[in-house]
């Protein structure tokens, strides 16, 4: 596609439920990132994929968060036993080269009630 | 522990004037500095960057200045236009010295309003 696509754009879930957020990067981009932006804050790094493997998952807050990219393109961020503090905009970005900026999607706004 | 500080949450500027957005950082390992612009309900958009071997980079109306000794950078927009109204994020990284992911560390952002 022309840009990074994230679905759904909005997700409301009950505390304790499981959610999956999807990211479809720009075709051919090998690097894929997940960030989380809470209200009034800048985006915070969660995880980075180079190809199919998670090359750096140091930003994942705890073991309730997990992400996969099985075929090196689409990625899914999975959150188990959601908590109200997980409410944020989850941003995905992709890049074809190391240097310069990478391209963000519009994000998924997750609300845990 | 905030590694990147944008101390002005908001800034209002008259159309045609200069906008100056500031950013301070504490991590001396940062060697590549990016600015992103964000409109509501959209993802951040890359605007301009500068490497630590330079002290200035210019792209049209946008110029970024880097003062490594002061760990300070600034983004100048001249002349400012109403379409520049957005939130601007400073986002440095360790692109050349880091071993890993080229992850960005974002500041909290500065909301720029350009008044017609």
Structure overview:
The complex is a heterodimer of chains A (113) and B (116). In chain A, strands 2, 4, 5, 6, 9, 10 and 11 form a seven-stranded mixed beta sheet that branches. By secondary structure, chain A is mainly β. Helices cover 0% and strands 49% of the residues of chain A. Chain A has no helices and eleven strands. Chain B has one domain (4-115): Immunoglobulins (Immunoglobulin-like, Sandwich), CATH 2.60.40.10. The A-B interface holds A 4, 31, 33, 35, 40-45, 48, 55-56, 59, 91, 93, 95, 98-107 and B 4, 32, 34, 36, 41-47, 49, 89, 91, 95, 100-109.
| Main interface by residue count | A-B, 27 and 25 residues
Number of helices of chain A: 0
- In CATH terms, what is the architecture of chain A? Sandwich
Biggest sheet of chain B: strands, sense, closure? Answer: 5 strands, antiparallel
| Low-pLDDT sequence parts of chain B | none
**Helical residues, percent of chain A:** under 10%
| Element order of chain B: H for helix, E for strand | EEEEEEEEEE
Number of strands of chain B: 10
How many separate helices of chain B? 0
CATH architecture of chain B: Sandwich
Fourth CATH level, the homologous superfamily of chain A = Immunoglobulins
Shape of chain A: globular
Oligomer: heterodimer
Question: Structural class, judged by helices and strands of chain B?
Answer: mainly beta
CATH topology of chain B: Immunoglobulin-like
User: Strand order, biggest sheet of chain B?
Assistant: 1-3-8-7-6
Overall structural class of chain A, as computed from helix and strand content, comes to mainly beta
Number of domains of chain A: 1
Using the CA coordinates, give the radius of gyration of chain A.
Answer: 13 Å
